[in-house]
Design a protein that fits this description.
This protein is about 30% helix and about 30% strand. By secondary structure, the protein is α+β, with helices and mostly antiparallel strands. It has a single domain, classed as Alpha-Beta Plaits (2-Layer Sandwich). The radius of gyration is 19 Å and the shape is elongated.
Length: about 120
């Protein structure tokens, strides 16, 4: 089998079925939150940790999640978000099922209480 480094610029015409060129499409779901200074009797940092734990807890409870990563920001810039979510799904339908899942909706309630701003981006790769 002829293996070589693939840069993405070579001519792959007629090789649509080449297994080396096939990769599953994934749905990426990114969310960035800016938290309130205080909410629910807790500081921004305490709520960031609680939100991180709640989101990470979804991994074993919502089967549609293919991958999930939550980060707490360390950048002090005013424009920075406090908590970031990166997640992957096999299909758009899986993302929709995740968004409607009762366990996810519980986290949404926490988010509504502790955040002042939310940004989201969904895309396919």
């Amino acid at each position: 089998m002829d293996l070589y480094f693939r840069t993405g610029f070579e001519n792959n015409e007629g090789r649509e079925n080449d297994p080396l060129l096939q990769r599953p499409r994934m749905i990426k779901h990114l969310v960035l939150w800016k938290l309130k200074e205080t909410a629910e009797g807790k500081t921004r940092g305490e709520n960031a940790l609680e939100l991180k734990a709640a989101l990470e807890n979804l991994k074993g409870r919502v089967m549609e999640i293919h991958a999930l990563e939550v980060g707490i920001n360390f950048n002090p810039a005013d424009t920075a978000s406090d908590v970031s979510l990166y997640s992957e799904f096999q299909t758009r339908d899986d993302l929709e099922k995740y968004q409607k899942h009762p366990e996810h909706l519980k986290v949404v309630e926490l988010v509504k209480k502790v955040t002042q701003e939310r940004r989201v981006s969904d895309y396919e790769t």
